[in-house]
Specification:
single chain; mainly alpha; 199 residues; 64% helix; Methane Monooxygenase Hydroxylase, Chain G, domain 1; 0% strand
Length: 199
């Protein structure tokens, strides 16, 4: 099976898993990360197939999204075998997604493709889409928008994670775009607090 067909089948697989996901980790998030990863891979002379495939698959097995992360990862491996990927390709994709998550700490992935996917994933948490995803995730998990009485709010998430991401980017293209999106979020927060304080 050629790589284009393999990627199409991977996209369909991800669509089935995430099409009804309501926390901002949906099919469209995977698509944005996959396409950004492909573009970054071209700029960085990395393996575009591995980067795009890992972009599509990077949230499979995330404990926030799966009740049984291990089974989800094993299911992904079986699926990749079924569509004809060899053991080396599967292993390379698995390595690329292994250290992507922010929750695992500020760990730099061991492969260039992993670094690219991590950058693409973090970029999708920034800017206008990132703001929308933050409130979608907060709402789905019962978080308040903002409160002086608890730190477990969507607004606090900006300070705990989102505003830190700009300085964690690895690739040149991601660093440039992150700066733009970071500034947009700061502008948004300034306006948010202006309106909030007018209550």
């Amino acid at each position: 099976m050629d790589k284009k067909t393999s990627l199409s089948k991977i996209e369909d697989y991800v669509m089935q898993l995430f099409q009804n996901e309501g926390t901002g980790h949906d099919y469209y998030h995977m698509k944005r990360v996959a396409l950004m990863a492909r573009g970054f891979a071209r700029e960085e002379n990395a393996d575009t197939f591995v980067a795009e495939a890992a972009g599509w698959l990077h949230d499979i097995g995330d404990k926030k999204l799966f009740n049984d992360p291990f089974s989800a990862k094993e299911g992904m491996k079986v699926f990749l075998q079924q569509i004809g990927l060899d053991d080396e390709q599967i292993s390379t994709i698995e390595r690329a997604v292994a250290d992507v998550s922010f929750s695992k700490g500020h760990k730099k992935p061991s492969t260039l493709e992993g670094q690219i996917v991590q950058d693409a994933d973090r970029l999708d948490a920034l800017g206008a889409v990132g703001i929308a995803r933050t409130f979608a995730y907060g709402g789905a998990n019962g978080q308040l928008i903002h409160s002086e009485n608890t730190a477990n709010t969507s607004i606090q998430h900006f300070y705990d994670k989102l505003l830190l991401l700009k300085d964690l980017m690895i690739t040149a293209a991601a660093k440039k775009e992150a700066g733009i999106r970071h500034q947009f979020m700061k502008t948004y927060l300034a306006q948010f607090f202006k309106e909030w304080d007018e209550q």
